[in-house]
């Protein structure tokens, strides 16, 4: 199943639901590659659940977007008022239902890096036991220069940070 979603700002979101961001300094396998990962805890709302008490599939897309935007702005310190990443493609594989009361987190790593795009690998996991994976996703993000309104190459600093993540060698400070 392929779901395409514009960035949160294009959807009119003004508030992002985040309780904690933590960076894991060790490499973690996500799919078939090793990457440094950024973990974002997600605060779920009652509207995220369906009548069976499971997180609704649509909410997973919001969780991925929150993790992506937060990781780039808060941890990687990318100036999103100058450069942003537009989602070109999102794919989600739903593995197990997440039930009411389970704390949710999203882990994000870099699986591939091009001149203007980055492939992100994400997992929606139990925040207390990250071996419990509810969904796996991949996002292709294209870097856009907001002044020219066109896609552009990653800045030198951005590319260095993404390469360090991809190679499992990221050394970031923990975000507040």
Describe the protein.
The chain has one domain (8-166): Roll (Thiol Ester Dehydrase, Chain A), CATH 3.10.129.10. Mean pLDDT is 81; it is low at 1-28. The protein is α+β, with helices and mostly antiparallel strands and 176 residues long. The protein is 17% helix and 42% strand. The termini are far apart. The longest helix is centred in the middle third of the chain and has 19 residues, at 57-75. The protein is globular and about 45 Å long.
Q: Which helices and strands, and how do they pair?
A:
Elements: E1 18-30, E2 33-42, H1 57-75, E3 83-94, E4 104-113, E5 117-126, E6 129-145, E7 150-151, H2 156-166
Keyword list:
alpha+beta, Thiol Ester Dehydrase, Chain A, 7 strands, 176 residues, 42% strand
Summarize model confidence as the mean pLDDT.
81
CATH class: Alpha Beta
Can you tell me the CATH architecture?
Answer: Roll
Helix amount? 10-25%
Instruction: Specify the structural class.
Output: alpha+beta
């Amino acid at each position: 199943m392929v779901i395409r979603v514009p960035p949160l700002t294009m959807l009119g979101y003004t508030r992002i639901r985040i309780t904690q961001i933590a960076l894991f300094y060790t490499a973690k396998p996500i799919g078939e590659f090793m990457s440094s990962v950024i973990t974002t805890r997600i605060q779920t709302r009652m509207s995220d659940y369906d009548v069976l008490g499971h997180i609704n599939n649509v909410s997973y897309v919001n969780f991925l977007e929150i993790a992506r935007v937060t990781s780039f702005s808060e941890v990687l310190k990318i100036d999103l008022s100058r450069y942003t990443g537009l989602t070109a493609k999102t794919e989600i594989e739903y593995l197990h239902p997440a039930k009411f009361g389970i704390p949710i987190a999203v882990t994000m790593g870099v699986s591939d890096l091009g001149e203007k795009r980055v492939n992100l690998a994400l997992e929606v996991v139990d925040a207390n036991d990250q071996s419990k994976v509810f969904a796996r996703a991949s996002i292709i993000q294209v870097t856009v220069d907001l002044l020219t309104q066109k896609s552009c190459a990653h800045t030198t600093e951005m590319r260095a940070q993404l390469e360090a993540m991809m190679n499992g060698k990221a050394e970031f400070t923990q975000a507040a």
